[in-house]
Amino acid sequence: MREGNLEAPTRHPVDWQSPDFLHEAKLFAEMERVFDICHGCRRCVSLCQSFPNLFDLVDATDDGELHGVAKPDYWKVVEQCYLCDLCYMTKCPYTPPHEWNLDFPHLMLRAKAFKFSKGEVTAKERLLASTDVHGQFAGIPIVVQAVNKVNSMRPIRKLLQGRLGVNAQAWMPGLAEQRFRWGRAMNGNARVVTNGERTPGKVAIFATCYVNYNEPGIGEDLLKVLEHNAIPYEIVEKEQCCGMPKFELGDLASVAKAKEANIPVLARYAREGYAILSAVPSCTLMFKQELPLMFPQDADTQLVKEAMWDPFEYLVARHKDGLLKTDFKQALGKVSYHIPCHGRVQNIGRKTEEMFKLIGRSVEVKLNTVERCSGHAGTYGVKTATHAVAMKIGRPVFKAMAKDEPDFISSDCALAGHHIAQGMAQAGTPARALQHPLSLVRYAYGME
C-alpha cells in the first residue's frame, strides 16, 4: 500500500440522489472511517477548526483512539467545516486516486445534507443563506438607508444578535443604492469579436448576488476593464443566486432549483461562444466544480463548466493571446493581496498575482501575496457561534497582510477583504485602502 498520492487529486461525482447518501448508519460508518484516517495523519490541523476539534475528541478518550469518541460528538467536527476545499486540494495525501478515497469536504457536505433533511438547520441560518431574499431590498432608497443605518449601529446590532444569529461585532455588507443589473445597457459598445488562441473574444457576465446587491462597483470596474480592451460583453439575461450559500447548509434541493434557473440561461451563452465571467470566487467554483459534480450527466451543466472563467484567469489568458492592453499609467505602490480559498482550489494558478506582476512591468507595484484562509468562509465569519473562531483563524493573515504598511489591501473575495480589514483594525494596524483587484486594475489603467 502506498503511503500517499503522487498523482493530482481527482473528484468523484456527489451521489446526492442515492438513498444511501442520507442513510444515517452508512453516513456515520463513513465518518468513522475517514475520521480514523485523519486522526492518524493530522496534516490538516492548521486549516480550520474541524480538525483540532476532531483531534481533541480523540485525545480525550481513554486510549487515544477514535472508537472512544461518542457518535453525537461527530457533529462538533461537521459544524466547523465551511467547505473551503483546502484539505482536499492542498493537504490530504489520501484523496482519489489513492485507494483510501478520502473526500473530507464532500463527506461534510453529506453530513450537512443529513442534518438539513432532519429539519435541524435553524430558520436564522436558512435566512442568512437566502441572498436573493435579503438582496431584494437593494436599490429601494428608503429601505436601503434604513438597513444600512441599522447595520452601522452596534447597540441595535447587539439587540438583533439573538434574533438574526449574526454576531454584533462582525462586519456585514451594506445594501447598494443602485443594483448592478439596474439602469444600464446590458451589453457593451464594442461589437468586433476578436477570438484568441486561448480565449473567446466576447464575455457574458454572471453578476453574482454580492456584486448585484452589495458592491456593484466591482462589476462596474470589470466592465471598464473589458471596454478598455475592446472586449464585447453582455450581462447575463437573468440569474439567481448560484446556490453556494445553500450548498454550505446542505440544502441540496435548493441548489438544484438554482441550477434549473441558471444553467439553461448560461448554457445558451456557452453555446454561442461566450466566456462566462463571475467576479466572486465561490460563485465561479459553484459552476466550475460543485454543480458539475452534482449533475455529472447533465450536458448543459458540463458545457457551462467549460465556459466559466475567473476574471483574472481570462485576462491573463487574453494577455498570452497578445490581446490585452498593457498601457498602465498609475502606480499602485505597495499592495498586500490575499488569495481566497475558493480561488486557490479552482486549479488555475495565481492569476490575479500574475496580473499584478504584469502591471508592475509598466508602473510601480510592490506586491505582498498572502496564501492562507482568512477565516471568513461565507456565513461562517458572521454567525454568532463562529465569528470569534473565524477571527482566530484569520489572525495569521491579518498579520501577514500588514507587512510593509501597504498602500492597498485586496482580495478576490470581497467578503474576505472586509474580514481582513476588520481583523487588521482590531489588531491595531493603521487603516489601509481596501480595493478589489479589479478596481486596482481599473485604477492602474488610469480610468477614474
List keywords for this structure.
448 residues, alpha/beta, 4 domains, 4-stranded parallel sheet, 21 helices, 8 strands
Kindly describe this structure:
The protein is α/β, with parallel strands linked by helices and 448 residues long. The protein has 4 domains: 99 residues, no CATH class; 42 residues, no CATH class; 116 residues; 118 residues, Rossmann fold (3-Layer(aba) Sandwich), CATH 3.40.50. Helices cover 47% and strands 7% of the residues. The strands form 2 sheets. A 4-stranded parallel sheet has the order 2-1-3-4, sandwiched between helices. Strands 6-5-7-8 form a 4-stranded parallel sheet. Strand 7, helix 20 and strand 8 form a beta-alpha-beta unit. Helix 14 runs antiparallel to helix 15 and helix 19 packs across helix 20. The mean pLDDT is 92.
